[in-house]
């Protein structure tokens, strides 16, 4: 065992892993985290705690992860390269490990310009750091864990033992570089990979074929991403505006039909679309898991954590495996 | 070259309004090419300031002049006496010029008349683009001649982030994704495989460190010293 995390144990057991996502609040109130943790607990093997997603200031990933852990939900703390240099990152990693956190997902992080959106002013004038990038951060975690050394080479008396993750956008642009992108993260030391949301299962499968030829699926555990769609509008938006996500017309059509079936009744339109969204998500989860080389799913129900239970159950992924504590 | 851009005249007025003898001092190399701070622009700024001063009933004389470069002493040595007649020099050189001159004008302040933007090139007339960030350790041979430090919004060293969208950066549809360009370029060069190698965490001390960075060329300095001695001894003979 590299970290002894629950996620690592599930993957080692050979069963498909399920991870979900928990977004901390823009407030110092821990109850939001506690509430979400209890909604997710039991329906996933670990939940990603986002690190100031879209560059919006929220409870830090480490603090929220510690709260989730206290509630009995295994967290995957996320760490972006946007806000910290290697000194702060390593200090945070030591602290996170001391708090009992065992999974860490390395990310570049959304650019700070994203923080000013809708009604939010954000901090678009913030200075980003990017002292290291994702690949380099993965390498730092590995060096700390496996060599008990800091990036600069100084020894660590007690090494932080993280199960190291990285994200991957399999269908991102330029698409022919994406397998090499994964290769680099795996070579740097990524134990598991969570992918960007997949709707175009055919395209994903053709990318996975390349990954299998490279043998990468054996060197890392790939968890396919599924973003639970809430409405036809959301699907259209993701198709047109979210990088690395393309949504087949047929899926948008299905959501449209659900919406139209409600006529002028707005409440019903929402309910029907949400129900169709969950159905769609279940199908995607199954299709992702049927793809050779995939070891699990990462289900994102953004600000809709309550959807996870139904999806996991309907996909035949419940109950989640448990392991005796050592 | 160094690209500058004009400052709003209101901002400049805020800096100069309490002075009485102001020289707008242009620089005729980089910032002249990008129409920000050459003699022509210095003249325009001087005119605008004069108008503003008379509008606001301020007693102020505003002149303009320029030299070829503000970043080498020999260019402004001949005009130094003229400069000393003013109580403010508004330099429209880049920040290098403002700093350099400011170190040499004693009690006379030197204020910046333009914004120094970046190191860039003339993409097309009137269009300037940043292409290098002066990081002090060039790796362009690894990236197909396209700089990920100056041109990627996250200075990523190991390939594109997940935000690349149809060749554009996640930050804006108007910004080319540097890594998209790097990949396309390296495909053309047939060197794409080189990208598989992981670039380790950089040593940024060449880029930003304690105090200003310096480059010292021993051989040039030795040569100059020799030349100086020669002229001294020749002078002595005479
Ligand atoms: S690598 Fe450094 S020196 Fe080379 S172009 Fe980029 S910023 Fe300039
Ligand atoms: S989209 Fe491209 S240019 Fe923008 S941050 Fe990502 S890799 Fe860099």
What does this structure look like?
- The complex is a heterodimer of chains A (326) and B (238).
- By secondary structure, chain A is an alpha/beta fold.
- Chain A has one domain: TIM Barrel, CATH 3.20.20.220.
- Chain A is 43% helix and 14% strand.
- The longest helix of chain A has 25 residues.
- Chain B is α/β, with parallel strands linked by helices and 238 residues long.
- Chain B has two domains: 118 residues, Rossmann fold (3-Layer(aba) Sandwich); 64 residues, no CATH class.
- Chain B is 34% helix and 18% strand.
- Chains A and B meet through helix 5 and helix 6 of A and helix 8 of B.
- The site of one iron/sulfur cluster has 14 residues of chain B, from helix 8.
- One iron/sulfur cluster binds next to helix 7 of chain B.
CATH topology of chain A: TIM Barrel
Please tell me the total number of domains of chain A. Answer: 1
Structural class of chain B: alpha/beta
| CATH classification, class level of chain A | Alpha Beta
Adjacency order of strands in the biggest sheet of chain B: 3-2-4-5
Give the C-level CATH assignment of the largest domain in chain B.
Answer: Alpha Beta
- Estimate the strand proportion of chain A: 5-15%
CATH fold assignment of the largest domain in chain B: Rossmann fold
Largest sheet of chain B: 4 strands, parallel
**Judging by the overall fold, what is the CATH architecture of the largest domain in chain B?**
3-Layer(aba) Sandwich
Q: SSE layout and pairings?
A:
The complex is a heterodimer of chains A (326) and B (238).
Chain A (H helix, E strand, L loop, with lengths): L5 H8 L3 E6 L8 H10 L5 E4 L11 H10 L4 E6 L5 H13 L4 E5 L26 H14 L15 E6 L9 H11 L3 E6 L3 H14 L1 H4 L1 E7 L4 H10 L7 H12 L5 H25 L3 E7 L6 H8 L12
Parallel strand pairs in A: 1-2, 1-8, 2-3, 3-4, 4-5, 5-6, 6-7, 7-8
Helix pairs in contact in A: 6-7, 9-10, 10-11, 11-12
Chain B lengths: L1 E5 L2 H8 L4 E7 L2 H4 L5 H17 L5 E7 L5 H4 L3 H4 L4 E4 L3 H8 L7 E3 L1 E11 L2 E6 L15 H4 L26 H12 L28 H20 L1
Parallel strand pairs in B: 2-3, 2-4, 4-5
Antiparallel strand pairs in B: 1-6, 6-7
Bound molecules: iron/sulfur cluster (SF4) (2 copies).
């Amino acid at each position: 065992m590299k970290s002894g995390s629950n996620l690592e144990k599930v993957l080692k057991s050979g069963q498909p892993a399920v991870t979900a996502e928990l977004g901390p609040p823009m407030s110092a109130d821990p109850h939001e985290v506690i509430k979400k943790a209890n909604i997710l607990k039991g329906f996933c093997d670990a939940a990603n705690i986002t690190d100031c997603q879209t560059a919006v200031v929220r409870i830090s990933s480490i603090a929220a992860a510690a709260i989730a852990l206290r509630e009995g939900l295994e967290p995957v703390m996320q760490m972006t390269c946007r806000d910290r240099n290697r000194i702060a990152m390593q200090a945070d990693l030591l602290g996170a490990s001391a708090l009992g956190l065992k999974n860490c997902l390395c990310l570049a992080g959304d650019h700070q310009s994203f923080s000013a959106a809708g009604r939010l002013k954000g901090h678009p004038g913030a200075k980003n750091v990017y002292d290291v990038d994702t690949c380099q951060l993965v390498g730092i975690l590995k060096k700390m864990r496996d060599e008990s050394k800091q990036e600069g080479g100084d020894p660590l008396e007690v090494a932080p033992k993280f199960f190291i993750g990285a994200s991957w956008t399999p269908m991102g642009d330029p698409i022919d570089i994406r397998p090499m992108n994964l290769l680099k993260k795996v070579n740097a030391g990524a134990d598991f990979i969570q992918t960007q949301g997949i709707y175009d299962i055919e395209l994903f499968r053709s990318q996975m074929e390349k990954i299998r030829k490279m043998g990468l699926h054996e060197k890392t555990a790939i968890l396919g991403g599924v973003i639970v769609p809430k409405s036809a509008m959301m699907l259209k938006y993701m198709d047109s505006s979210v990088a690395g996500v393309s949504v087949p017309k047929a899926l948008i059509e299905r959501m449209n039909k659900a919406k139209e079936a409600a006529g002028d009744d707005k409440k019903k339109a929402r309910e029907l679309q949400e129900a169709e969204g969950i159905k769609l998500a279940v199908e995607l989860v199954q299709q992702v898991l049927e793809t050779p080389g995939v070891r699990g799913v990462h289900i994102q129900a953004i600000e809709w954590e309550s959807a996870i239970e139904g999806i996991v159950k309907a996909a035949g992924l419940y109950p989640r495996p448990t392991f005796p504590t050592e | 070259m160094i690209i500058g851009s004009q400052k709003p005249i209101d901002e400049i007025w805020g800096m100069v309004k309490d002075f009485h003898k102001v020289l707008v001092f242009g620089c005729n190399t980089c910032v002249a090419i990008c129409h920000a701070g050459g003699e022509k622009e210095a003249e325009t700024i001087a005119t605008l300031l004069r108008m503003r001063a008379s509008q606001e009933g301020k007693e102020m004389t505003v002149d303009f002049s320029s030299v070829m470069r503000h970043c080498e002493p020999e260019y402004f040595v001949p005009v130094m006496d003229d400069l000393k007649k003013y109580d403010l020099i508004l330099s429209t050189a880049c920040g290098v010029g403002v700093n350099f001159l400011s170190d040499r004008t004693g009690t006379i302040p030197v204020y910046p008349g333009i914004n120094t933007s970046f190191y860039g090139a003339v993409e097309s007339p009137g269009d300037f683009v940043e292409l290098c960030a002066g990081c002090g350790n060039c790796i362009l041979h690894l990236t197909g001649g396209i700089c990920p430090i100056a041109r990627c919004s996250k200075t990523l060293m190991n390939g594109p982030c997940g935000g690349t969208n149809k060749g554009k950066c996640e930050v804006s549809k108007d910004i080319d994704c540097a890594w998209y360009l790097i990949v396309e370029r390296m495909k053309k060069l047939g060197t794409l495989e080189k990208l598989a190698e992981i670039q380790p965490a950089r040593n940024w001390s060449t880029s930003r460190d304690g105090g200003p960075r310096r480059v010292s060329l021993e051989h040039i300095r030795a040569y100059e010293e020799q030349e100086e001695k020669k002229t001294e001894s020749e002078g002595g003979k005479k």
